[in-house]
Description:
GO terms for molecular function: transmembrane transporter activity. By secondary structure, the protein is mainly alpha-helical.
Amino acid sequence: MSPDLVMDTCLLAGSIILKNGGETYRTEETMALIAEAAGMDDVNSSATPTSIILSFRCSGLDHTRMVRTPKRTTNLNKITLVNDVSRRFVGGKINLEQAYRLLRQIDQEKPIYPIWLQHAAAATASGSFAMLAGGTWFDLIPSALAGLTVNLSLEFLEQFVRMKFFTEFSAALLGGLFALLAVTIFPQLHISIIIIGAMLPLFPGIAITNSLRDLLAGDLVAGVSRGVEAMLTAVSVAVATAIILWVG
């Protein structure tokens, strides 16, 4: 098999997993399995939350390449699809060219849920979480609208600002301002409950989970970096919340 095609296929599979919320150990394992199934020798793979390095030996020559993944999101469906392609190739059900074409299709696929549905889900989750946190029925709709404001703000700001934590802080601040406005108009509402619900779309649950899984798998650099990323997100949300409560 062409070593260039093997390298392209492995790196594409790894980058899809990494930039869609997968763990680094899963990224390394998938690339290594594909390369070994393609007949490559001395396969070594290394991944951090922002980069991938793969090396192997073919016909006595060493091949090494690195790619960066600066933008990351969460799309577990794509991770599942990549795992399926990897298993089919390793099992001999498809060849390398077919695997590469399938991975290209997966990488170019749009999210299975439209953006309006994602915003609606964020609003529903925020309102429901406010109720679970002890809010009343009067807090439900303001919390849902505040969560929608956070999600819309985050999507809009990410188009212009590449600093992730600044966009999260700004989105949290705008959601808090909406909550403050709602309490100003309707004093019977509970601002703390509404803010708790509004910040739900920003909670770094997946980042914390992946950090712990990487640490348990022995990937200390990736685990610590993901943990710091989650901590900074939590700090940005906490600071924005503190400002809103201080103003209110």
